[in-house]
């Protein structure tokens, strides 16, 4: 998921999410297994970086109830079982080391690692441990630029006051309910909160250098408080409870918007996003493709698993390269040809699971090729060239 690959990634992505986001997408949180899921030209399947089981669900699931909200100060239960000591884990590491990785080592107490020894430390990865609170020596602040605390037991964001050189911070798969005490980290470019308990987007004011924000698989109901993130290029919001796309007008640099597995009934609020290149909006309740008149740079659109019956609203997208529309209700090859044949840059389409495929399986691929001779990939299979 490099950090730009779906980690969902809903994704999300974070196996680019998710980003599956995403699995997420950027920053691959989980190793992808070989399968036949639809993928784009880069091998990403457009989902959050979560397991397929976590992302499963249909449109009828729009009324799924959340876990009851509790106050930030409520106790999280008894502490996890801890190893007697973590002191010796880094005994063989030289003090001039600039990267430390302690993954799945049952580390519970960051203080016992005696990290102050490493005066040149730039990257610290403590994934999949039992850390409940962030305890970092302030002596590391001048050099430390990346902290990865993915999959721990952190409930509250504390301990980052001195770390103003941070460029990347991953707090995914923890127990965080509120985003606090981070908006002084002005150099942050990548910030990950996949699979926490966040219900409100807050505490990010002034992070104008932020390029990637991942909030997939939380409890977010409204897109808000992003106005000052004017440098944002990737926004991952898959698997939340969002009913409307809004609050994005100032994000003129946004290139990727992933908002799959939410509660959307229409595509709105994208008028100011002239630089948008990818829109991942699968697994919602859309009945049509519309609202994209201003997004003429779109290259990738994923509207899979929406009850869309007609292929419309794409005529202005001259640079479209990939259209993912599996498991919709599309039934007309004439519409496919009318809407897409003139798109010279179009290379990949996914239509499996639609009536136009299920009603005539033997002829399906040939009909797509006749309608769209420029295509090089149909669903998960490349088109044979003569």
TrEMBL record:
Read off the InterPro entries from this record. Answer: Cilia_flagella_integrity, Leu-rich_rpt, Leu-rich_rpt_4, Leu-rich_rpt_typical-subtyp, LRR_dom_sf
Q: Which family does it belong to?
A: Belongs to the SDS22 family.
The record's Gene3D superfamilies line, in alphabetical order, gives:
Ribonuclease Inhibitor
Region (Disordered), start-end ranges: 1-87
Q: Single GO cellular component annotation? A: nucleus
Q: Where in the cell is it found?
A: Nucleus
- Specify residue ranges for compositional bias: Acidic residues: 66-76
Q: Where are the compositionally biased (Low complexity) regions?
A: 13-25
**Which PROSITE patterns does the UniProt entry name for this protein?**
LRR (PS51450)
Q: What Pfam families does UniProt report for this protein, alphabetically?
A: LRR_4
| Composition bias type Basic and acidic residues, residue spans | 26-56
Superkingdom = Eukaryota
Keywords of the record, alphabetical order, are:
Leucine-rich repeat, Nucleus, Repeat
Protein name per the record: L domain-like protein
Please state the span of the N-terminal signal peptide per the UniProt entry: none
């Amino acid at each position: 998921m490099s950090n730009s690959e779906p980690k969902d990634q809903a994704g999300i992505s974070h196996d680019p999410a998710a980003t599956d986001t995403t699995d997420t997408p950027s920053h691959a949180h989980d190793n992808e297994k070989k399968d036949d899921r639809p993928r784009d030209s880069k091998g990403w399947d457009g989902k959050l970086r979560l397991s397929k089981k976590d992302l499963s669900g249909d449109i009828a699931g729009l009324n799924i109830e959340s876990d009851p909200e509790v106050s930030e100060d409520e106790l999280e239960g008894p502490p996890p079982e801890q190893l007697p000591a973590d002191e010796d884990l880094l005994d063989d590491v030289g003090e001039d080391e600039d990267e430390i990785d302690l993954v799945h080592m049952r580390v519970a107490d960051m203080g016992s690692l005696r990290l102050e020894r490493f005066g040149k430390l730039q990257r610290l990865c403590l994934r999949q441990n039992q850390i409940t609170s962030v305890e970092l020596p302030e002596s590391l602040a001048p050099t430390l630029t990346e902290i990865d605390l993915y999959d721990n037991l952190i409930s509250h964001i504390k301990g980052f006051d001195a770390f103003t050189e941070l460029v990347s911070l991953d707090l995914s798969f923890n127990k965080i309910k509120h985003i606090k005490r981070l908006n002084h980290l002005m150099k942050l470019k990548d910030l990950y909160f996949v699979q926490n308990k966040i219900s409100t987007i807050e505490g990010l004011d002034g992070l104008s250098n932020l390029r990637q924000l991942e909030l997939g698989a939380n409890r977010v109901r409204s897109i808000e408080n992003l106005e000052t993130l004017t440098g944002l290029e990737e926004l991952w919001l898959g698997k939340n409870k969002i009913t409307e796309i809004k609050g994005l007008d100032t994000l003129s640099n946004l290139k990727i918007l992933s908002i799959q597995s939410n509660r959307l009934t229409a595509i709105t609020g994208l008028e100011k996003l002239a630089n948008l290149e990818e829109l991942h909006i699968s697994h919602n309740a859309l009945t049509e493709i519309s609202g994209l008149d201003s997004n003429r740079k779109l290259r990738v659109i994923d509207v899979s698993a929406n009850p869309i019956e007609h292929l419309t609203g794409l005529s202005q997208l001259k640079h479209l390269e990939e259209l993912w529309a599996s498991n919709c209700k599309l039934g007309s090859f004439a519409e496919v040809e009318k809407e897409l044949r003139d798109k010279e840059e179009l290379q990949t389409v996914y239509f499996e699971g639609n009536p136009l495929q299920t009603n005539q399986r033997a002829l399906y691929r040939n009909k797509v090729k006749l309608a769209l001779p420029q295509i090089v990939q149909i669903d998960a299979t490349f088109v044979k060239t003569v």
